[in-house]
């Protein structure tokens, strides 16, 4: 029988709070370059309403987060970016975010690029 117990996800409020005022790490063509709109964007890889940990984040402005999540798209944005492209963009943005977290003293160097 399949084990249906929930696994505990990694939580770190300092990582989430650190996004405020940071530059966007996605830099889609639609990026608004407005640090005031930057938040910690979680990877959408949880599947079936699963949640990812707070180490699986990238700092993203409102517009890049909207593109990454494929929500509230404008007509000309629909289908513009494939899932594979968006996933690759997230991996790069997450790496840059981890470097920033390390520079802020919030993440160990050995944890850069690692998702728990």
Question: What's a quick, concise take on this entry?
Answer:
This protein is mainly alpha-helical and 116 residues long. Helices cover 29% and strands 7% of the residues. It has three helices and two strands.
Please, could you describe this protein's structure?
By secondary structure, the protein is mainly alpha-helical. It has one domain (13-105). The chain has three helices and two strands. The protein has helices spanning 13-17, 62-69, 83-103; strands at 39-42, 57-60. Strands 1-2 form a two-stranded antiparallel sheet. The model has no long low-confidence stretch (mean pLDDT 90).
* Average residue-wise pLDDT: 90
If strands are numbered along the chain, what order do they take across the biggest sheet?
1-2
Cα-based radius of gyration, to the nearest Å = 15 Å
User: How far apart, in Å, are the first and last alpha carbons?
Assistant: 26 Å
Fraction in beta strands: 5-15%
Number of alpha- plus pi-helical segments: 3
Largest sheet: 2 strands, antiparallel
Oligomer: single chain
Number of strands: 2
State the share of residues found in helices, binned by percent: 25-40%
Q: Which structural class do you get from the secondary structure elements? A: mainly alpha
How many domain modules?
1
Task: Indicate the low-confidence ranges by residue numbers.
Answer: none
General form: globular
The SSE order reads HEEHH
